Structure formats: C-alpha cells, structure tokens
Amino acid sequence: MTHLSRRELLRSAALAGLALPVLSACASPAGGGGASPAAPAAGATSAANPLGLAESKPLEVWIFDGGFGDSYATGIHEPLVKAKFPKLEIKHNATKEIAKTLQPRFAGGNPPEFVNNSGANAMDFGALVQDGQLADLTPLYDAPSWDDPGVKVRDTIDPTAIELGSYDGKPYVLNYANTVWGVWYSQKLFEAEGWQPPKTWAEFLQLCETIKKSGKTAPFTYAGKHPFYIYEAILTLAAKIGGKDVLKNIDNLEDGAWQAEPVKQAATAFAELGAKYLLQGTAGLDHVQTQTAHNKGQVAMLPCGSWLENEQKDSTPADFGYAMFALPDFGSSDALPYGTLHVQPGEEYIVPARSANPQAGLEYMRAMLSKEGAGKFMELVSTLTVVKGAGEGRTLKPGLQSASTALDAAGDNAVWFLFRKWYAEMHDEVAAASGQLMNGKLTVDQWIERAQKKAGSIKSDSSVKKFKR
Amino acid sequence: MNYGRMRFVTGFLAIPVALYVIYVIAPYAQAFYIAFTDWRGVNANPRLVGLENFQRLFDDNVFWKAVGHNLILLILMPLLTIGIALFFAFLLNAGGRGGTGGVWGSKFYRVVFFFPQVLAVAVVAVLFQQVFRPDRSGMLNAPLIALGFEPVGFLSDTDIALWAILGVLVWQAVGFYVVLFSAGISSIPRDMFEAAAIDGAGGVQLFLRVTLPLLWDTIQVGWVYLGIAALDVFAIVWVMTAEHGGPDHSTTVMAAEIYRNAFQYFKFGYASAMGVVLFFFTIGFAALALRLSRRERIEF
C-alpha cells in the first residue's frame, strides 16, 4: 500500500508541475543534417517530473518485437509511466524491422520519442550518433531515481551499461538487459554427489578429477563448434588474473596485448582442462548438443552466458536446478577478487534528439530503470537487467536467480571485451585458434602468436575503422 | 543471311544478351573496380587503394589454404565421382551375365543412386552433420564407440574434415553421373557388347575396351561439370562445417572466403580482389578443359 500512496503523491505533484506552460515546441527542427543534436529544451522540472516532460504531447514508443516480444512494454513499462502521467498519451508500436520502419522518419526529422533499436535490422548507432540524432542521456542518469529521489539514476545501474552505451564519452544508448557469463552446473547433481562449486583453480581441477573418477559423467565441456564459448572463459580468467587493462589492451589492438603473462596463464590453464577433462567428442558438438548433454547428465559443467536457462527450457528436467559460479581464483595474486564476472549489457534503447517530446522518452527510460520496471521485466522475459538488485523479492527461476546473485555480488568487478563486436575477423581467428588450443593441436605460444598476428594485421589494415575504449 | 532472318535472330537474342550483360558482365566489371578500393559496403565514394588488396591477398594464409583445398577437390572430386559412377553405370547396364544387361535389381539401384541428387544441398549438409556427429548419436561413430574405439572427429579433426567434405560431395554427385553414363552406355549398340562377349571378352575387358572408349565424350562433359562444381562447393562447406570452413580453416574454399570477407567482415574491396583471382582460376580451368577435350570422336 505504501507505494500506492507515494504514487498518488507523485501524481499530484506532476499535475502541479504542469501548471506552467511547456515551451518545448521549438525543440524539433525538421530534417536537416546538423552535426550537433538540438539540445532538448526541457519543460519545467519538478520533483515529480525531474526531466520536465510535456504531458500535452504524445509519447511514441517503438519496441523491437524480437526474443523479448513487446508485452513487457505494454504490460509493465507503459503502465508505470501512465500511472504517473495520466494525461500523457502513449502511442505503442512494435516491429521486427526497426531500420526499414524508422529510418525514413529520422531522415525526415520527425522521429518517435523512444526506440528499441535492436535486432538484425537495427539502425547503425555510429551513424545515428554522427548525425546528432540521439539525445544525450546524461540528464537521465543525473536525475533522481524512480524509487528514491535521494539517489541518482546513475547510481542504481551497472556502470558497465553506461560505458558501453557511450560514444566519445557521451551516453547515448541505454543497454537495458544484462548478460553474465559463468560456469553452469546442476544443483541437483552437485548436491546428490556432494560436489561444491570451486573457489580456487586448484579446487576446480580437483573437482574435475573427482568427477572424472566417479565415472558417472564427464567433468567439463563447451560448445566445441563455436569456440567463442571457451575463449570467452579464457579471456575472463586472464582479466581476473591481470586486471581490466588486459582486455582493454586486447580491444585496443595494442602490440603485445596477447603476449601478456595473464593471457598466457589463462590459456595454459584452459589448455590443461581441454587435455584432461573434456567430454568425449566436445570439439565436434555445438552449443545445443553440449547443453543437451548437460541436461541429460552426461557432463557436469559448461561455460555459458545467462541466457542458458531460458534457451534450454524445453529440454531441462524439472528438478535440474541450473546454477552458475564465477571463474575461480587462479592464484593468490589475482588482480581482481573472487566473484569477478564477465558482464555484457545489451538490448539497446535510444531517445531520438529531434523527436517532439524527447523528455518523455527519457522519463520512459527512468521508469524502465525503476526496481519495479526492471524486476517485472526480469520475471517476464527471464533475463538480467542492468538495474542493481532488480531481482530482489521476485520469483525467479533458479538459474536466473543464481546469475542475479552473482551479478549483485560482483559489483564493480565486471570485465568485458568488445573486439567481438568491433572486429569480426579478430573474433573468428581467436575462436578458430582456441578450438585448436583445446584440442591440443596448438600450443599456448602458437595460440598467442596467431591472435597477436591477427591483431597486428587488423591494426595495419587501413580499410577497417579502429575503435578505442 | 537475309534481313528478315537477322531481325528474327536479333529479336531472340536481345533479351538474353541484355540480361547477361546486366547481371553477369556488369557485376564482373564492377567487381574488378571494387577490388581496387577499400570499400566496406556503406560509403558512397569508395577510396581507390591501388593494388593494396592484392598485396594483402598474397600474404593471406587462409586464402591460399582455401585455394589449396579447391585444387585438391578439383583433382579428386571428378576423379572419384567419375570412377565410381562409371563402375555403377557399367554394372547397371552391361555388368550382367554375358554383358548384355544390368546386374540383378539394376532398375531399383538406378533410382536409389539418384536419391542424393534430389536432395537440396542444405539438406545434405545438415544430414551429414548428424551422420558425422562425434558422439553416440552419430551414425558412423556410434558403432565405433560401441566397439570400444575412440570416436573419429570427422568434422572436428582438422586432418580429416576436408576428406569428410570430399566424401559428401562425391556421395551427392555420383547419382547424377550414373544416370548420365547409363544413358551414354545404353546408346552404345548392343551388338558391340555381344560381339565382344562372343570373342571371349570378360567383364573387365568389356569395360576397358568397349564401354570406356565409346563413352569418352560423355565423361569429358562430366569432367567439366564436376570441375566447375569443385571450384564452388560453397554451400556444403558453409552449412556443414564448424566456423564456416573450419575447424580452423581446414575445409575453407575460395567462395567461402569471399563470402566471409564480403558479408561478415564487410570488406567488399578485399573480397572483390579474391573474386578477381577466382575469376582467373575459373577462366584458366575452362581454357584447360576445352583444350584437353579436343579429341577425335568415335562414330557409331
């Protein structure tokens, strides 16, 4: 009942804020290819309406109708905004073809207020930013959060999300969903056998040995046909050993980035795992086949992202009890503490700067970033969000709960790499070499040499645009 | 040639020639131009970079690996396919007792051999992914595992994967050439076989001295077709193998590298340079094939 009364209070405050006429009509120059975004002229702001949206002008929402569908918008986020601004007209739309539908509207100077620019047919972010089409999200992040006016929005979400949504240091894109990677196992199996998730690499190897000796199941596998699944783990371990700069240097194609000692240690560790503890035939199996083997109890552990539980929902036994653990401590001198995770926010949302009511788009994002908005989203589409502690008090499936707990525990100890997105050929080369590393056909030094060579050749390729982080 | 006939011929040729120019010649010409740029697919004004793409291509190990794989397939695929198809066709048409008919049940086999040809390439690729699976669900590995052997990584072992591809290509192609050669054999007059058989020729001699020489034209046609197919093999490789031409580039071919560079890396300039090289390989093969196939015809 308390939040209802709070909402009443906020609503009346919002109405009070609207007493002043809003002068934002001039904020939408039509067409034009101006390089700098028109500064969204804010209406009157108030405690209840910190971003100063105009209730008199509609809020047009476009959702990408992909894996998440669009019912989270109509069922969760739009009602949240509507409850606070009852007079605001929300025009909901969903499409699978974001670019085809909306690019002409950007070009014509009357884009909608809020766009979920995701999926295979998304518009190019770099081009949108270059063209000054996107509203700076700084006012949103500096605004008080939905749940607690004393805390800024910025402090309620994963900082990785803000960084990944920034272009040249300015936040333009909200990455809302979140993905964490870890080693997945069945709680049921582990409890039945008395196995414990390992805290150190030595314990991990010990566990693999125990599982191997038990003869009941293979210790470890990964999607052998898609070696990304294993180089992801190698690089996460490398960052844990050597710190965040290890991956930053790799992303920036620095000379010698792959030859760094932590990378070598991590690769050596996984090569050993590959030589001794892999499920038979791993190299020839894809993610579906290995994950199904995992569900059938043929293998105990595999590295994957937090989408795993949802992806496997049709083949998982009811009492399987998905859970994940972060990569264990490699040594006592690891740069990052136990619980460090590979975290990668995704699913992009933008507020077009030249829309008629950009503040409404920002307010919509503020609602999404509320605990209620994010928590219900988690429940509905079974994914993590960038909102801290959004899963608290929600009934989540065991795997999602486990990932959510791990994410909250990791805090700022999140690592990530972007070369997969920036340089597809780098990704392919590292994947190819990693598969052979795990098969024992490449030595660690050869693996390093190949990755470094590719980094060098991309660096010297004038036709490829370089990125920095 | 009178005027009316000229008009008649021109009328028929205009549309095909126009289509050919627009959809074949023009793209080729464009590819030659794009090969000298660093175009990445979105820029309106590609920058000319001279021979840079070709220089890079020269040092690109993966591309030369792909060329090597194409050459291996170019030699072995026609050889194996034609060899097996000839053998089957002979058995189906002249392998029976006395050399006058096919072996028992030949009509049934003829249909069975043709099955793979009817399947879409993508279907074949997915089918063989399952056949080659390295676990107990794999058709080939299940018996091996049951007998206590290590499973063979048909598509996951870099030393074996290309041979697995070759096997699938031959498997799929044989059926068509069995039919082609059967047609060829059945057009050879019966009495030639009968005469040879009366003179005491056995099965092997019938095949080597009668069938093969009289079928030479058809075999040459098959050879050219198969050679062209071996320079492509994109679909099977792309769909069937891990990493699209992997593992670790062990099965990649030129067409796969062109596709990868163009549509995955958006390096259209570089991919076009590969296309130009492939163009010259194809022209070279065609010229060679035409030269080698100049041979006297045997009239019968």
How does this structure look, described?
The complex is a heterodimer of chains A (469) and B (300). Chain A is of the alpha/beta class and 469 residues long. Chain A folds into two domains: 36-179 and 345-386, 3-Layer(aba) Sandwich (D-Maltodextrin-Binding Protein, domain 2), CATH 3.40.190.10; 180-343 and 416-459, Periplasmic binding protein-like II (D-Maltodextrin-Binding Protein, domain 2), CATH 3.40.190. Helix content of chain A is 43%, strand content 12%. Chain A contains 19 helices and 14 strands. Chain A has helices at 2-17, 71-84, 98-108, 125-130, 138-142, 159-164, 187-193, 201-214, 228-242, 244-251, 261-277, 287-295, 308-311, 358-368, 371-381, 398-410, 419-422, 424-439, 444-459; strands at residues 59-64, 90-95, 114-115, 166-167, 170-171, 174-178, 180-186, 218-220, 299-305, 322-325, 341-343, 346-349, 384-385, 414-415. In chain A, strands 7, 8, 9, 10, 11 and 14 form a six-stranded mixed beta sheet that branches. A three-stranded parallel beta sheet of chain A has the order 2-1-3. A three-stranded antiparallel beta sheet of chain A has the order 12-6-13. In chain A, strand 4 and strand 5 form a beta hairpin. The model of chain A is unreliable at 1-40 (pLDDT under 50). Helix content of chain B is 69%, strand content 0%. Chain B is mainly alpha-helical. Chain B starts with a helix and ends in an 8-residue tail after the last helix. Chain B is flat. The A-B interface holds A 124, 224-227, 280-281, 283-286, 289, 293, 424-425, 428, 431-433, 435-436, 439, 441, 461-464 and B 38-40, 42, 49, 52, 56, 132-135, 141, 150-151, 153-158, 242-243, 246-249, 260, 264-265, 267, 269-270. Chain A: It holds the Pfam family SBP_bac_1. Chain A: This is N-acetylglucosamine transport system substrate-binding protein. Chain A: Belongs to the bacterial solute-binding protein 1 family.
